[in-house]
Write a structure and sequence with these properties.
562 residues; single chain; alpha/beta; seven-stranded mixed beta sheet; five-stranded parallel beta sheet
Length: 562
């Protein structure tokens, strides 16, 4: 602005002021160049302020001293340091500016600075007072702004502290919730393990009256529903934290799907529904996937289809086709389509079916005799499980005409491991095995022992009620397989295995499979860390138990022959 004012002053015959404006603008320009090039801010600031102060005092000297209109600009001298340097620098320049004005007043009174024609001493004092008041007023405004800003800053700080405290409380509450869910899950799975186990034993008892057999089937169905609710809540919690894990293994695809599909055969029969399963095209015998998660996905889709269908049927189609966008030739896409002739889903609700805790209103029309209400998590968890495996899920539905859910999962074609070849339904195995069952609940030990004896009558079974007792027995006797509970009051299962792995061979080489209700990611990681051979979830799946014992519990001499 000084550079622009210079020519104007020259035109109106104010040559002295014009030259001073040009000189001042030059020094200010130099100070800006120095600032841009990284010179000391203090030095740059002094050059700038000195130039500004110099041009004001120079022109004031020739235009009436303290009564000159140029002296109004003295009010700007303390302002710039406040924003460029600090408040202390601003206050320092304020005191300096007032001192300069008072000094000029004294010089003018003593006749060293010419006065304008008509000015009196009173005019000098009044002008000095006004200039000082102007500077003070601007500083007061800045201080007021500072005070308001500080007050607002304190309020924001208090709100932030309150939010941080609330966030910490929410984190603690979330941690407690996770602990609660894990604990409740474990504590509920443990008695369910006993219920499932004893029901399996009763179901396979010879000469069981048909009426009692029916009661047992109903009890198993109800227990299965309760287990689904528990698993859904735990899985949903783990999904929210990104902690849900996959445990892929090689499975016989057709057999696995047949077994899952057959689980709801009786429910469909009770409603007189057609319940079909069709494999379309060539199906590879063995693929690698997580059978537990596949079971969840398929049972959720089939369960909903049966639940919402009162007449007609439920049809499941299975296809396997080569993936287009994969690097390995053995990668394929596994497609599941579950269609029904049920009540369908309206257009405004179809976009919500995969949201958690959402249950469509048409559910109210289900027959009361078949109204095992869900928790609204089934399809949400199904979608998360599909996405976790890199797959896709979609739905087509029309109200009153039925629905069709399609799932596509990328899987890898595998060769069958020896333990899975020619695998059929569990049958009695005459192999003599030496087994150690470790669990702090007597009922669980009883269930496992009875189930093992049912299918391995020649098995020798030893029991240990805690980690310490298990460690003692594992140090003194060679077992073919140890079924190890993870959560025990003295030593955890992983601690026991970690200790035994440090013992001398052959005791350190014992096969250990975790038998646990705790399927959290951390627990599975710990099992892998101490080199356990596998994990069996509670409640015990009978087929998986027999398969695990066959795979890992076979005596070493028989393994070599095999």
């Amino acid at each position: 602005m000084l550079f622009l004012i210079g020519p104007v002053l020259w035109v109106i015959n104010q040559e002295r002021s014009s030259i001073s404006a040009f000189i001042c603008s030059f020094f200010i320009f130099i100070s800006m160049i120095m600032w841009k090039r990284g010179s000391s801010l203090v030095l740059v600031h002094l050059i700038y302020q000195g130039s500004l102060l110099g041009v004001i005092l120079y022109n004031a000297y020739y235009l009436g001293g303290v009564t000159s209109s140029v002296m109004v600009w003295m009010g700007l001298v303390p302002i710039l340091p406040i924003f460029l340097m600090s408040r202390e620098w601003g206050y320092g320049w304020l005191v300096g500016s007032i001192a300069i004005v008072l000094g000029m007043l004294q010089l003018q009174i003593n006749g060293h600075i010419p006065m304008r024609l008509g000015d009196t001493i009173d005019d000098l004092y009044l002008s000095t007072l006004m200039i000082g008041m102007l500077s003070l007023t601007q500083m007061i405004l800045v201080s007021t702004y500072d005070t308001a800003s500080w007050t607002m800053f304190q309020q924001i700080t208090k709100k932030n502290e309150a939010l941080q405290a609330l966030s910490r409380k929410l984190e603690i509450a979330s941690s407690h919730k996770d602990t609660f869910l894990a604990t409740v899950s474990h504590e509920m799975r443990t008695p369910l393990n006993a219920v499932f186990g004893f029901l399996n034993i009763i179901e396979r008892t010879d000469h069981l009256p048909s009426e009692v057999y029916g009661f047992v089937k109903h009890a198993k169905n109800s227990s299965s529903h309760l287990l689904t609710v528990i698993n859904d809540l735990l899985d949903f919690s783990q999904m929210q934290q990104g902690r849900l894990v996959l445990a892929p293994q090689v499975v016989h695809l057709k057999q696995t799907v047949y077994q899952i599909h057959a689980a709801l055969q009786s429910r469909a029969a009770e409603k007189n529904l057609k319940y079909s399963l069709e494999f379309i095209g060539e199906i590879p015998p063995y693929v690698k996937l997580d059978p537990h998660r596949l079971t969840q996905i398929l049972l959720n889709l089939l369960g909903n289809a049966v639940k919402f269908t009162n007449q007609g049927g439920v049809r499941t189609e299975i296809r396997v086709f080569s993936a287009v966008d994969v690097k390995h030739s053995h990668d394929v896409t596994f497609e599941i389509v579950v269609s029904d002739t049920g009540i369908g889903i309206s257009e405004h609700q179809i976009g919500k079916v995969f949201e958690p805790f959402v249950q469509i209103k048409e559910q109210d029309h289900i027959e009361s005799d078949y109204s095992l209400r869900g928790n609204g998590l089934g399809l949400s968890i199904t979608r998360s499980l599909v996405l976790l495996q890199g797959g896709v899920i979609d739905v087509q539905s029309k109200k009153g005409e039925g629905s069709a859910f399609r799932v596509c999962l990328p899987v890898h074609v595998e060769q069958a491991p020896n333990s899975l070849r020619d695998k059929s339904e569990p049958s009695v195995n005459p192999i003599e095995i030496n087994l150690l069952v470790v669990d702090d609940h007597q009922m669980n030990r009883m269930v496992v022992s009875n189930l093992v004896k049912k299918f391995f009558p020649n098995a020798t079974i030893t029991e240990a009620k805690n980690g310490t007792e298990a460690l003692t027995k594992m140090r003194s006797e060679l077992f073919d397989l140890v079924l190890m509970d993870l959560i025990m009051p003295d030593l955890t299962g992983t601690e026991v295995v970690e200790i035994i792995r440090k013992e001398a061979a052959p005791y350190s080489d014992v096969n250990v499979v975790a038998l646990t209700a705790n399927l959290a990611n951390e627990a599975l990681h710990e099992c892998n860390r101490v080199h356990m051979q596998g994990v069996l979830p509670k409640p015990i799946d009978l087929g998986l138990l027999v398969q695990t014992i066959t795979q890992f519990g076979m005596p070493k001499d028989l393994k070599e022959i095999h």
